[in-house]
Amino acid sequence: MAVRLADVDGLDAVSIRALSHRAGLTTDAVYRWVRSRDELLAAMAEQVLGIGRARATLPRAPRERLEELARAEWSLYRRHPWLLAVLATTRPPTGPAVLALVDRTVDTLTGVGHSLPDAFAGYLALSGYVQGMALLQVSERAEHDAGGAAWGSWSTRTFARLERSGHTADRQWLAAAQAVPADPDRELERWFEFGLARLLDGLLR
Questions:
Q1: CA geometry: angle at 146 spanning 86 and 39, to 5°?
Q2: Torsions phi, psi of 91, nearest 5?
Q3: Which domains, from first to last, does the chain contain?
Q4: In terms of C-beta density within 10 A (0-12 exposed, 13-18 middle, 19 or more buried), how is residue 143 classed?
């Protein structure tokens, strides 16, 4: 129920009081299961990550395995945007499903010769990349839901303004960026795959 509430109304809508109201329980009854909002968020993360782990059948080849793990995490943030705020922190929850998320990448990287410290650093680099790209995705969705201008319209207006002010003269990349199709979902997917491939090139030399 808490996951559904966050999916629909965002993480700010999730509280012990809101959950107890939705479930038809007293807050004291909910506090018997979780002692704080942080524990509630940790339990929510465990639920969605545990479901994803149960469904995952990972390939044996290291590169394909890391690609699958990165894409699975990327898809999780698409389905549950609130999860990004729970996990993208220096103090994430440390339940079994969260730890298993790290295990799978670390095991893959040690299997190709990285030391344990370097394998953990590799996990942080890979997951941090996924989370950073997911932030663009979540921000675009929030802008759309708030009634903001379509990405294509914003891009066209912004390029025209920069052109008038002379900021495009020595920046050919701006014109190249303006030439791409105005579909934020497709572009974010393309950017994500481009960066993922090159990050894995470095991790799996």
A1: 20
A2: -130, 65
A3: 34-146 (1.10.357)
A4: middle
Contacts of 33 (CB under 8 A, 6+ apart): 43
5, 37 in Cβ contact below 8 A?
no
The amino acid sitting at 103 is D
Amino acid at 183: D
Report in angstroms the alpha-carbon separations of 28 from 17, 20, 21, 55.
Answer: 10, 9, 12, 34
What does the block give as tokens for 97? 């499903």
CB atoms within 10 A of CB 9: 12
Instruction: Place 53 in a pLDDT band, splitting at 50, 70 and 90.
Output: low
CB 23 within 8 A of CB 1: yes
Q: In the block, which residue shows the tokens 């319209």?
A: 153
Q: What is the pTM of this model?
A: 0.83
CA distance 180 to 177: 6
Q: What is the pLDDT of residues 18-47, one digit of tens each?
A: 888 887 888 887 888 888 889 999 999 999
Instruction: Identify which of 154, 11, 6, 164 has the alpha carbon closest to the alpha carbon of residue 89.
Output: 11
Which of 129, 43, 54 has the alpha carbon at shortest distance from 94?
Answer: 43
Rounded to whole angstroms, the Cα distance separating 180 from 109 reads: 35
